[in-house]
Amino acid sequence: MNLLRKIFIKNIAVFFGCAIFFGLNSCTEELTTISKNNKTNFPSQVINNANIIQRDSGMIKLRAKAPLIEKYEFIDSPYIEARKGINILFYDKKKPDLPGKIDAKYAKYNEKKKFYEAKGNVRITTNENQMFAMQSVYWDQVKKIIYTSDTVFVTDKDGSTLVGANGMKAKDDFSEYIFYNNSGDINAKKIPEAGR
């Protein structure tokens, strides 16, 4: 009887030992599987009903309003995204009382590349009261250029219009711009003598 009891206890000990061993191994495999599937593309910061003011030397440089701004910084190329649209007022030192405006249904800023993009009924109004309308626009802050390949509709303060059917390229302060395949109704006084 004692011999049967000893064999029974040894079998139970071996059984529990195996169960613990396999249980620990399965947990380890499960943990490594979970850690491999971790996602890093989630917003690290979320701002609802954002009202952002950026200042430089005490002067307001920019005011931005957006229903939602999300910052993604745990990835190789961090970015900030306004998925529900954005409204920006930007101020120039030459005309601090007359801000320019940008409205778009979507905006994204790549922090490493210093590159902006805006999409969906983009409207840009300069402090000279020129209005640019397009579906998408890109701003390379390093090269200081703004461009798009979409059709651009421009309305000047005197009511003249211009259409760039194949897009445009401009300095980021809109002091110079080029339109591709353009047409429209423009005031002849604005065309230099050499171009008439």
Can you describe this structure?
This protein has a 6-stranded antiparallel beta barrel. Helices cover 18% and strands 45% of the residues. By secondary structure, the protein is α+β, with helices and mostly antiparallel strands.
List strands and helices in order, with pairings.
Blueprint: H1 2-36, E1 45-56, E2 59-72, E3 79-82, E4 86-90, E5 100-104, E6 106-110, E7 115-125, E8 131-140, E9 145-148, E10 152-155, E11 161-164, E12 168-171, E13 177-179, E14 182-185
Antiparallel strand pairs: 1-2, 2-3, 2-4, 3-6, 4-5, 5-7, 6-7, 7-8, 8-9, 8-10, 9-12, 10-11, 11-14, 12-13
Quick tags:
single chain, 196 residues, alpha+beta, six-stranded antiparallel beta barrel, 14 strands, globular, disordered C terminus
Short description:
It is built from one helix and 14 strands. With 196 residues, the protein is α+β, with helices and mostly antiparallel strands.
**Distance between the terminal alpha carbons, to the nearest Å?**
118 Å
Strand order of the largest sheet: 2-3-6-7-5-4
Largest sheet: 6 strands, antiparallel, barrel
SSE sequence, one letter per element: HEEEEEEEEEEEEEE
Number of strands: 14
Whole-angstrom Rg: 30 Å
Name the average pLDDT. Answer: 79
